[in-house]
Amino acid sequence: MDVTAPRRIVVPTDFSETADEALAMAMELAKPLGSQIAVIHVSAPVVVLPPPLELVSIPNVFPDVLRRMEDALEKRAGRVRDGGIECEIALL
């Protein structure tokens, strides 16, 4: 069987230490394989507040939250790039 190296390794993050360890492991895999890494974070667009139940957009409650998440993703991507690995980020 002919095995092809993955072109991209997708690493989800919740910005925890455990997720950072997973990113480090992905970097160890990507380097010898010549793969790039995509670091992604999925964010819920709304938060449910206590009664009266109301859906509120997260940026309305925490105005700088999207910028902070993007900064955190860029920080991790910088670590990957410093390791000589191509990296992209996505905030979904």
Quick tags:
two-stranded antiparallel ribbon, Rossmann fold, 92 residues, 5 strands, single chain, alpha/beta
Give a verbal description of the structure:
The protein is of the alpha/beta class and about 90 residues long. The chain has one domain: 3-Layer(aba) Sandwich (Rossmann fold). The chain is about 40% helix and about 25% strand. Strands 1-2-5 form a 3-stranded parallel sheet, with helices on one face. A two-stranded antiparallel sheet has the order 3-4. α1 links the parallel β1 and β2 (about 35-40). About 15% of the residues are buried.
User: Which stretches are poorly predicted, pLDDT < 50 over at least 5 residues?
Assistant: none
CATH topology: Rossmann fold
Q: What class would the helix/strand composition place it in? A: alpha/beta
Q: Estimate what percentage of residues fall within beta strands.
A: 25-35%
The tally of strands reads 5
- Helical proportion? 40-55%
Give the helices and strands as they follow along the chain. Answer: EHEEEHHE
CATH homologous superfamily? HUPs
- The CATH class is Alpha Beta
Q: What spatial form do the alpha-carbon principal axes imply?
A: elongated
Can you summarize the main beta sheet?
A: 3 strands, parallel
Termini Cα gap: 36 Å
Mean pLDDT: 90
